[in-house]
Amino acid sequence: MVKATTSQFVEEKFDVIRVPYVKDKEQIDKVVEEAAANRAVVCYTIVSPELREHMADRALAMDVEVVDVLGPMLKSIEKTTGLLPRNQAGLIHSLDHEYFKRVEAVEFAVKYDDGKNPLGLLKADVVIIGVSRTSKTPLSMYLAHKQIKVANVPLVPELAPPEELFKVPPYKIIGLLIDPFKLNEIRSERLKTMGLSDTAVYADMQRINDELTYAKGIMRRLHCQIINVSNRAIEETAGIIMDYVRKNKERHHEG
Q: 60-88, pLDDT tens digit by residue?
């Protein structure tokens, strides 16, 4: 808002000085004194009614021009909705922190998708394992938007899982299983969209059963939590995983 305002005065260059995290009256006194000494305008977004009032009083006493940016907006929304503001400082910084955590988790999910880099398994909050087309990647991305760092590993009979997988604590691993007929249907559709014949080995029932048997064996060795995703939406599976993660965090934090 300050930038937009000062841009209207093209013949003058303004210095804009930011003073973040104002939390007490002494800070306000100092800002007003500096503004008075430098013939400056003070624009403020203070949420505390007490500190806003103190700013107005000090500015009046020292003949400093001030603009309360947030106060009128808070009053208007309060009047229109009947809701009361929380008047809690730093909430926007908390939102920024959550945003960056979410971005970090998304970047993590991309980096450690599909077993790309086994080193990520030991850094992950959750490791998802399962055969191809059990929604490992969409689940990883969905959970990343909930600030959970997820790595996923495909289970293929011809390819031994990375050694790092067996070093991950079992409570951090989620195994995904699916009904073989449902998987056949999903894989056949996938082949069609790729312009390939749905009679390929990838969608063959014997091959699917072999893969699922192999996956179950690995999951037994890992002693991990298993979720059947046959008739579940991604949101539902993600909800089960988030609940499981939360309970384990509490349990291991207590331990």
A: 999 999 999 988 888 898 889 988 877 76
What pLDDT does 34 receive? 94
The residues, ordered by sequence, that sit 6+ positions from 21 with a Cβ below 8 Å of its Cβ are 89, 90
Q: What is the pLDDT of residue 141?
A: 96
Residue 72 CB-density burial (10 A; 0-12 exposed, 13-18 middle, 19+ buried): exposed
Residues 6+ apart with CB under 8 A from 74: 47, 85
Mean pLDDT in residue range 165-186:
96
For residue 65, give every residue at least 6 positions away whose Cβ sits within 8 Å of its Cβ, in sequence order, or none. Answer: 41, 42, 59
One-character DSSP codes across 61-113? HTT--EEESHHHHHHHHHHHH-------TTHHHHHHHHHHHHHHHHHHHHHTG
d(CA 179, CA 173): 20
**Nearest-angstrom CA–CA distance, 250 and 95:** 24
* Mean pLDDT of the region 211-227: 97
